[in-house]
């Protein structure tokens, strides 16, 4: 466990219970709020402006910090676009890579440390073009230059990146909801709840709850998370899907479960529900896995987010299973999304 983990756990508890620590941090939250109001004013009076892009942008984001389910939601959204024959591309900051100021269109053979673990996972899972960069506008332009046939851009995160115009936002919540409803660091909120969209952008928003039931008063849709199954690391890199029977075959074996996620306990709980016997190894979010944090003699189950950082040819002798997550929004969400897409693309999918 990382040294910062106890502090992160203490903050999560403070945000949930609104305890003494949360109250002590309120002056810093007030400063955060003042900075946000200044940003609003700069855009409102035209001192700062959102960029312009030739295709619609859908932003998948959240109001709370850490692990609400943006990447699984992005993958589900991309699946809907694929089935509608709409050509999509993805832009992301590529958090955790060596130089996130550099704009880069992900190519075959790129490594997670250079492009980010979540963007690489999206490219591998969804098979769509992906570009990364701290400046999302620059990343979008680079991606469109590399693939002019893209009809819609999906931003994995970027809700608070005001320079990025957006025609639709998908706002994701998990079971934490709004926590104590306070801004960072006194609460989990990354932005004020009433923060308007940047001028020139649409306020159209779909709310999606990633844990099966609403956790705020905002009307929205729900989705369910479940484990799709397990697959050997080498087979995962060849594109083979996880299978439940393979996951169930691991029952009764002494396993190590490792997860470099914002909220690894959720993964461990799902493994336990499947009857697996394991030691849990919680790693920092976006953790590097060089050197390996476990012995080569261990039989290990990991997440797909960690699998993108482990090339099987360099791990001879390791027995590693990748456990895939299946996230499915309810049918009503997909129907609402399709209505929005028909509004954004009135001429329909590309015929190229």
Question: What brief labels describe this structure?
Answer:
single chain, 352 residues, alpha/beta, 12-stranded mixed sheet, 12 helices, 12 strands, 20% strand
The SS-based structural class is alpha/beta
Largest sheet: 12 strands, mixed
Task: Summarize the helix and strand pattern as letters.
Answer: HHHEHEEHHEHEEEEHHEHEEHEH
Rg from alpha-carbon coordinates: 20 Å
Please give the order of strands in the largest beta sheet: 3-4-2-5-1-6-7-8-12-11-9-10
Mean pLDDT: 91
Alpha-carbon distance between the two ends: 50 Å
Secondary structure tally: strands: 12
Form type: globular
Strand content: 15-25%
Would you identify the regions where 5 or more consecutive residues have pLDDT less than 50? Answer: none
Explain this structure to me?
32% of the residues lie in helices and 20% in strands. The mean pLDDT is 91. With 352 residues, it is α/β, with parallel strands linked by helices. It is globular. A 12-stranded mixed β-sheet has the order 3-4-2-5-1-6-7-8-12-11-9-10, sandwiched between helices. β11, α11 and β12 (319-329) form a beta-alpha-beta unit.
Brief synopsis:
This protein has helices at 5-17, 20-24, 26-44, 70-83, 112-115, 117-126, 136-146, 233-237, 244-248, 264-273, 304-307, 331-344; strands at 57-61, 88-92, 104-105, 130-132, 152-156, 168-173, 205-209, 221-232, 255-259, 278-282, 299-303, 319-329. It has 352 residues and is α/β, with parallel strands linked by helices.
């Amino acid at each position: 466990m990382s040294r910062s983990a106890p502090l992160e756990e203490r903050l999560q508890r403070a945000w949930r219970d609104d305890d003494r620590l949360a109250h002590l941090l309120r002056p810093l939250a007030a400063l955060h709020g003042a900075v946000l109001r200044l940003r609003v004013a700069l855009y409102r009076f035209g001192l700062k402006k959102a960029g312009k892009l030739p295709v619609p942008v859908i932003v998948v984001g959240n109001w709370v910090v850490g692990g609400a389910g943006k990447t699984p939601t992005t993958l589900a959204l991309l699946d809907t676009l694929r089935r509608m024959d709409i050509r999509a591309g993805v832009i992301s900051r590529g958090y955790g890579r060596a130089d996130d100021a550099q704009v880069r269109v992900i190519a075959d053979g790129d490594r997670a440390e250079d492009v980010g673990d979540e963007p690489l996972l999206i490219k591998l899972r969804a098979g769509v073009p992906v570009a990364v960069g701290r400046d999302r506008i620059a990343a979008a332009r680079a991606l469109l230059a590399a693939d002019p046939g893209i009809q819609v851009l999906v931003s994995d995160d970027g809700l608070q990146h005001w320079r990025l115009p957006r025609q639709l936002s998908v706002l994701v919540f998990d079971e934490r909801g709004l926590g104590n409803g306070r801004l960072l660091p006194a609460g989990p909120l990354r932005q004020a709840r009433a923060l308007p969209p940047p001028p020139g952008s649409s306020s159209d928003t779909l709310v999606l709850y990633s844990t099966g039931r609403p956790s705020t008063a905002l009307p929205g849709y729900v989705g369910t998370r479940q484990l799709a199954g397990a697959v050997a690391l080498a087979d995962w890199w060849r594109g083979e899907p996880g299978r439940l029977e393979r996951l169930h075959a691991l029952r009764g074996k002494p396993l190590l479960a490792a997860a470099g996620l914002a909220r690894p306990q959720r993964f461990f709980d799902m493994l336990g529900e499947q009857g697996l016997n394991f030691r849990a190894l919680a790693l920092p979010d976006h953790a590097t896995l060089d050197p390996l944090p476990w012995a080569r003699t261990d039989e290990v189950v990991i997440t797909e987010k960690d699998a993108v950082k482990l090339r099987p040819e360099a791990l001879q002798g390791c027995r590693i299973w990748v456990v895939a997550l299946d996230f499915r929004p309810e049918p009503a969400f997909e129907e609402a999304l399709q209505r929005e897409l028909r509004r954004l693309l009135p001429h329909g999918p590309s015929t190229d």
